[in-house]
Amino acid sequence: MSPRILIIGQGLAGTALAWRLWERAVPLLIVDRDEPHTSSKVAAGLITPITGMRLTVSWRYDVFYREALRFYRACGKRLKQRFFFPRGYVRLLKNEAEIAKWHKRRRDPDMQPFLHRQTPELNAEVIHQPENGFQQRHAAWLDTNAYLEFSRCFFKSLDSSITADVQPADVHDDADAVEWNGQRFSHVIWAQGWSAEKHPLFHWVPFQSALGTILTVKADLQGEKRIVNRGCWLLPRQDSTLRAGSTYEWTFDDPNTPSADQVQKLEATLHSVLKAPAQITATQTAVRPIIKNRQALMGTHPTHPRVAFLNGLGSKGSLRSPWLARHLIEHLLDGTTIDAEMDLQHNSI
Ligand SMILES: Cc1cc2nc3c(=O)[nH]c(=O)nc-3n(C[C@H](O)[C@H](O)[C@H](O)COP(=O)(O)OP(=O)(O)OC[C@H]3O[C@@H](n4cnc5c(N)ncnc54)[C@H](O)[C@@H]3O)c2cc1C
């Protein structure tokens, strides 16, 4: 049958897939159950090149960033909205060991495109100990809620988006087609985030998802717009609030309830960075879909060729989803090969 694709889940993964199909004029239906707190709705949307304790450039950053920049700008133009904001990113070094590590790393050739020549010069009335930091280039943040919501309205206006909770048992596939809710499709793509842990066709994928919490904080940053990080990151927003985060909890009973201990630690770190008076106005929690030892996985099911999967975006969904979605769609429509490191079939058991 000619291509018509069912996408299940409208987080960052499903939304990027829908846009990639729309760009190629392929009919689609995207179905989401519209939960209030999902990973994509809670996410800060940070896109930052030099991350983590090891102070290294994030995996394939250059390739993913170039694609993300083009993709979000094009979506913004189509929707006449702005949700992608390039931003300076200041990393403050925590202690002598980190400073020593940075002095070793800073000359690495792969770092050079991302280093700003000037020292950051933060306001000492706003940030505690603003010295010992470096500023990064090619960083940004995505207003994920605006991007998801405007995209949803756009696809709804084309009758290509609906709200429903899709049960795996209600989606039938055979050699010819996929069928759901009385409609036929050439493929189904499951892009359902961490809920895929319970999907009977994907139970063997080694998920290791992590609960994460972010704070919303009211504070006057005296015009500071850059993202600042020392132990936790602060993301100034346009409305004199900022977001601060985030925690990683590898074991949890309830996906909506963070441990009090983790939230207290985050609050303490926030106050160790932010000197300006601050009031915490909200706490949001969701589960990041993470696959053990993988940056992401995509492709078709080993024995169900019309059933595809895109998942495991971890804490990099804003950065990587545009590139991953294009590659999965090219695989389904044109038969291109999926990069072995991210191919679901290479990782099946
Ligand atoms: C605290 C926190 C901070 C984060 N910060 C960042 C950050 O700064 N930068 C960044 O890039 N990423 C960040 N992330 C991670 C990022 O958000 C994820 O990589 C991304 O959201 C994963 O997107 P997804 O579409 O795969 O999954 P999800 O966002 O979970 O989307 C899946 C969607 O599928 C729907 N769904 C599931 N099952 C069904 C079903 N059966 N029927 C219908 N619908 C279904 C869900 O309701 C949901 O809407 C953060 C995440 C958290 C939790």
If you had to describe this structure to a student in words, what would you say it looks like?
The protein is of the alpha/beta class and 349 residues long. It has 2 domains: 157 residues, FAD/NAD(P)-binding domain, CATH 3.50.50.60; 129 residues, D-Amino Acid Oxidase, Chain A, domain 2. 26% of the residues lie in helices and 28% in strands. Strand 14 and strand 15 form a beta hairpin.
Q: Could you tell me how far the N terminus lies from the C terminus, measured between alpha carbons in angstroms?
A: 30 Å
Structural class of the helices, strands and pairings? alpha/beta
Q: What proportion strand? A: 25-35%
Radius of gyration: 21 Å
Bound molecules: flavin-adenine dinucleotide
Number of domains: 2
Count of individual beta strands: 19
Provide the CATH superfamily of the largest domain: FAD/NAD(P)-binding domain
Largest sheet: 8 strands, mixed
Instruction: Give, in spatial order, the strands making up the sheet with the most strands.
Output: 3-7-6-14-15-16-13-17
CATH class membership of the largest domain: Alpha Beta
Give me the CATH architecture of the largest domain, please: 3-Layer(bba) Sandwich
Summarize the amount of helix as a percent range. Answer: 25-40%
The residue ranges in which pLDDT falls below 50 over 5 or more consecutive positions are none
Name the shape in a single word: globular
